[in-house]
Design goal:
Bound molecules: tryptophan
CATH class of the largest domain: Alpha Beta
Number of strands: 5
CATH topology of the largest domain: Rossmann fold
Structural class: mainly alpha
Shape: globular
Strand order of the largest sheet: 1-2-3
Number of domains: 2
Distance between the termini: 37 Å
Strand content: 5-15%
C-alpha cells in the first residue's frame, strides 16, 4: 500500500458511457486498490451548468453506484459527495484572495466560452456565470483540502490541477507552508474510444454506449455501430473498425489477436463481429450491472456509504481548514 494521497472528482452531469469507463473509471478503480484514495462526486462543479436539483441527484447516485459496482476498494478509498464538506465552500472563499484574476482569465474552459461568444458576435462574457469563471478555485479547494499528492484526470483537466498547484504556491509564499503541491497524473493514452458513428465517443456527438445500459439496449446499440460495406467474405481492416477498437478494451491480448485475424482473413460478416463484441462486453459488465441496478433500486446503502465517506473526508478537511484559517485570519 502506497502512502501517497490520490484524489479525483467526477462531475454528475450525465450517465457514464463506455468511453468514460475505459479512460477514467477502470484506471481509478485499479488505483484505489493500492493508494489512499479520495473520490468524490463533484456536484458543486455541476451547478454552473445544471439547474435542476433532481438531475444532479440522479447522476450523483448513478456515479456512486457505478464506482461501487465496478469494485472501488472502499477500504482504501473514501467516496463522498463534494457538497457534504462545508470546508470546501469556506476554503474556496479564502483562496479567492490569493488567486490572481489573470490566472482565471487564462483558464481553457473560460477562454473557450469567450471565444465562442466573440465568434457569435455577442458580448464576450455572455452566459458566463461566476461559477464557471471561478471553477478552478473551487477545484483547487477540493484538491488542497485533502493533502493530495496526485490527481488522476483526463488531459482536459490538467490545467486545472496546475492552477491548484499555482494557488497553493501563492498561498504558501504569502502565509507560510500549509499546502502540499499536487501533481496531475494524466493516464496513459488509451487512444480514442470510438462511438457508434466512429467519431470519439462523446455525449456531445450523441454516439455513446451507456456503460450499464440494460442488456437489450446494449445489444441494440452495438448492432447500430456504423461499418463500411464490405461483404462477409472480404478481408477487413481491424484498425479502422469501431467494433474491433471496442473489443480490444475488454478482451485479453490473446482474444484480441484472434479477433484481429478474423478481420484480416475475411469470412466474418460485420453482423457476426457485432455479436461477438456484444457477448464480450456483456460478459464483462453483466455482474457489475446487476450490482449497479441493485444499488440504485434502494439508495439507502449508497446514502450510508456517502455519509461515512463525508465523515472521514470531513475530518481531514477540517484539519487543513483550521491551519488555513489560522494562517490567514488567526
Ligand atoms: N473538473 C473535473 C471534471 O470536470 C471534476 C473535478 C472537480 C475534479 N474537482 C476535482 C477532478 C478535483 C479532480 C480533482 O472532470
Amino acid at each position: 500500500m502506497n502512502t501517497k494521497v490520490v484524489l479525483t472528482g467526477i462531475k454528475p452531469t450525465g450517465t457514464p458511457h463506455l468511453g468514460n469507463y475505459v479512460g477514467a473509471l477502470k484506471p481509478l478503480v485499479a488505483m484505489s486498490k493500492e493508494n489512499k484514495t479520495f473520490v468524490f462526486i463533484a456536484d458543486l462543479h455541476a451547478l454552473n451548468l445544471i439547474k435542476k436539483p433532481e438531475e444532479i441527484k440522479k447522476h450523483t447516485y448513478e456515479i456512486a453506484a457505478l464506482l461501487i459496482a465496478l469494485g472501488l476498494d472502499l477500504n482504501n478509498a473514501i467516496l463522498f459527495r463534494q457538497s457534504d464538506i462545508v470546508q470546501v465552500y469556506q476554503l474556496s472563499t479564502l483562496l479567492m484572495n490569493v488567486t490572481p484574476k489573470g490566472l482565471m482569465n487564462r483558464a481553457h474552459s473560460y477562454k473557450a466560452a469567450v471565444e465562442k461568444n466573440i465568434a457569435a458576435g455577442q458580448d464576450e462574457d455572455a452566459g458566463v456565470n461566476m461559477g464557471l469563471y471561478t471553477y478552478p478555485i473551487l477545484m483547487a479547494a477540493d484538491i488542497l483540502l485533502y493533502n493530495t499528492d496526485e490527481v488522476p484526470v483526463g488531459a482536459d483537466q490538467k490545467q486545472h490541477v496546475e492552477f491548484a498547484r499555482d494557488i497553493a504556491e501563492y498561498f504558501n509564499h504569502t502565509y507560510g507552508q500549509v499546502f502540499k503541491l499536487p501533481e496531475p497524473i494524466i493516464g496513459e493514452d488509451t487512444g480514442i474510444i470510438p462511438g457508434l458513428d466512429g467519431r470519439k465517443m462523446s455525449k456531445s456527438y450523441d454516439n455513446v454506449i451507456p456503460l450499464f445500459a440494460p442488456e437489450s439496449e446494449l445489444k441494440k446499440k452495438i448492432m447500430r455501430i456504423i461499418t463500411d460495406s464490405k461483404l462477409p467474405e472480404e478481408p477487413k481492416d481491424p484498425d479502422n473498425s469501431t467494433i474491433f477498437q471496442l473489443y480490444k478494451q475488454f478482451a485479453t491480448e490473446k482474444e484480441t489477436e484472434e479477433f484481429r485475424q478474423m478481420f484480416v482473413n475475411g469470412g466474418m460478416g460485420y453482423g457476426t463481429a457485432k455479436t461477438i463484441l456484444f457477448d464480450k462486453i456483456n460478459g464483462c459488465l453483466c455482474k457489475a450491472r446487476a450490482e449497479y441496478e441493485r444499488l440504485l433500486s434502494d439508495t439507502s446503502e449508497i446514502d450510508f456509504i456517502l455519509k461515512d465517506g463525508a465523515q472521514k473526508a470531513g475530518a481531514v478537511a477540517a484539519n487543513t481548514f483550521e491551519k488555513v484559517h489560522k494562517a490567514m485570519i488567526g
